[in-house]
Amino acid sequence: MAQVLQLAVAWHREGRLDAAERIYRALADGGDANVLHFLGMLLHQRGRSDEALALMERAIAADPTVADWHSNLGNVLLEAGRLDKAAQAYERALALAPERAAFHNNLGVLRREQGRLDEAEQAYRQSIALAPDSVDARTNCASLLLALDRHEESLRMFCEALLRSPRHAKAKRLLGMAFFSVGRLAEAAEVYQGWLKDEPDNPEAAHHLAACTGTLVPERAADGYVESVFDGFANSFDAKLAMLHYRAPELVAGQVASCLGEPRASLDILDAGCGTGLCGPLLAPFARHLEGVDLSAGMLAKAEPRQVYHRLVKAELTAFLQQSEAASRDLIVSADTLCYFGRLAPVFTAAHDVLRPGGWLIFTLEAVDPDLHGQPLSSDGFILNPHGRYSHDGAAVRADLEAAGLEPVAFDSVHLRNENARPVQGWLVAARRR
């Protein structure tokens, strides 16, 4: 059995999840705690977190002495937004292995999510004391200090992290964003230029450099940038947005009800940029056929278990619309996807062609924020901001809709979510094909 389990673990690490799961399940009937834990970890990767948690808790009940199991359980609970239980798991891990720097770092992340910022800083600093070369703990602590407006401490700690690991991509990205957020654009650009020198094809470095300098600003975020960001964010996406009081799906669904009346399961609907499928359950009562499209395979893997979409497609949105059958949809919704587009005219034109006469396009955008240190408004009415998303001028959006043959019926200023303890203002728009 031990050799078979080793093979399954090796396949698991290689990403051969189907093969690994078959072996884990074949061995699980014996109740071996190791098998239960590894199967739980695999199911969590596949977006089946409730099953994962049950298995991981069974493993710990069988053998509560393995510190890593408690820590892994805490990670899954944190990603699921179950903060109090995650704290208990991390505390048990630390009781078993107080010398483990990574456990203190995990606890710091959890305490920050709970809003217990002094305790978060203390946990990060304990992690750094135990492992002075730990880049993750330093970048996490530096990000916390930046959010607390302790700018010089934050920048110094980011720099210390890069001195210890000069090629650490996350530290470079965060240091550049930290410089950008305090208005030191030249230093931010220098960070991203250095990153591009090390990794000439890195889409994140190129995207953020454009935001700093205002040169070669893309009309929309590159496919590679979007995939990199959201594949890395998929596991914790829903829980993170819940903590930020994310409202876009509910706002969009409310606007759908306002424009289309009571749900009758009669519409052909496209969820454009469906992500993990947060809009799906809200749209399903209106849908005869509900399709989701997204560029991130990781996000689509989280949307599929919701079992509300008739079809999920991995594709870039504008290209997908341009290749779709003309006049084939009654409704297109897009919650917080068009904020990765600068120039909106192409996607509006493509949406117009896919909508049936009288069909609706309902979406959210971020509004231009004068407090962000972004570049001047482009001729198309958008700004690429330090966080990597675009914000838009309302008058320009209206003009682009009308030029595409879409009539703006509702154009409301809304609070989309919180970010760095500040509300993010945006637009909730409903436009109809004439």
Report on this structure.
This protein is α/β, with parallel strands linked by helices. It has three domains: 2-167, Tetratricopeptide repeat domain (Serine Threonine Protein Phosphatase 5, Tetratricopeptide repeat); 168-216, no CATH class; 231-433, Vaccinia Virus protein VP39 (Rossmann fold). The protein is built from 21 helices and nine strands. It has helices at 2-14, 17-28, 33-45, 49-62, 67-79, 83-96, 101-114, 117-130, 135-147, 151-164, 169-181, 185-198, 203-213, 223-233, 237-243, 248-260, 280-283, 297-303, 317-322, 345-354, 394-403, and strands at residues 267-272, 287-294, 311-314, 329-334, 355-366, 382-384, 390-392, 406-419, 422-433. A seven-stranded mixed sheet has the order 3-2-1-4-5-9-8, sandwiched between helices. α20 links the parallel β4 (329-334) and β5 (355-366). α4 (49-62) packs antiparallel against α5 and α10 runs antiparallel to α11 (169-181). The radius of gyration is 23 Å and the shape is globular. The mean pLDDT is 91.
How is the secondary structure organized here?
Blueprint lengths: L1 H13 L2 H12 L4 H13 L3 H14 L4 H13 L3 H14 L4 H14 L2 H14 L4 H13 L3 H14 L4 H13 L3 H14 L4 H11 L9 H11 L3 H7 L4 H13 L6 E6 L7 H4 L3 E8 L2 H7 L7 E4 L2 H6 L6 E6 L10 H10 E12 L15 E3 L5 E3 L1 H10 L2 E14 L2 E12 L1
Parallel strand pairs: 1-2, 1-4, 2-3, 4-5
Antiparallel strand pairs: 5-9, 6-7, 8-9
Helix pairs in contact: 1-2, 2-3, 3-4, 4-5, 5-6, 6-7, 7-8, 7-9, 8-9, 9-10, 9-11, 10-11, 11-12, 11-13, 12-13
